[in-house]
Amino acid sequence: MIILIVEDEPSIADTVVYAVKSEGMDAHWVKNGQDALDYVRQNHPALVVLDVGLPDIQGFDVCRQIRTFSSVPIIFLTAKDSEIDQVLGLELGADDYVTKPFSPRVLTARIRSNLRSSQPSAIPSLDGFHADHDGKRVLLRGHDLGLTRYEFEMLATLIKGAGRVYSRQQLMDAAWDEPDASYDRTIDTHIKTIRQKIKGIDPAIDPIETRRGLGYSFRSERL
Ligand code: CA
After folding, report:
1. Domain 129-218: which CATH class?
2. Fold of 2-118
3. Which segments of the chain belong to CATH 3.40.50.2300?
4. Which residues surround ligand 1, an ion (CB under 5 A)?
5. pLDDT digit string (tens) for 128-185?
6. Cα end-to-end span (Å), the chain
7. How far is the CA of 32 from the centre of ligand 1 (A)?
């Protein structure tokens, strides 16, 4: 579980990294907004701690941009009362905020609480696809694709990590309890069936991309 820390002041970043790590979570620190966006796209952190005042892109804009492709929980670090008003008033999609100077203990408590409350809403929903983990089914604009258990696990994994390439081994690990019992070819067969089921509901879409020599990825219109 990686917490992304976006903060241009090293002393504050150090404090946050230390606090996060002392709670048994991993921390990754970036100093500007662009690096934060790149990191969230590529690495899918569990939560983002986002400073408002960044050297390149304002924290508010970073948050807005993240929200176009990810529902990762975001906690703002704000320095001024005026920033709090903006966090609350702009409907940026931030989950919480902590004001500077903050106590590391307060921050980690907020991180934990936001991670907990993000679990139920971590149901991936993208481009009309909705993965219902309790029911082990994927709906496409409300229509059940009728996936088998393995197909469900594979497609839910691809949707959750939309844009990211999964190797056949990674898909196998995600779907099978005993990954070694299966072969690459099995993954290809399941992918083929999943594509047919998607086409059965909407022949115009084919969101699963084959990445030659790498594996598969879910291509989102929102990425
Ligand atoms: Ca700053």
Report:
1. mainly alpha
2. Rossmann fold (3.40.50)
3. 2-118
4. 8, 51, 53
5. 888 887 778 898 888 889 998 889 989 999 988 888 888 888 888 888 776 565 577 7
6. 23
7. 9
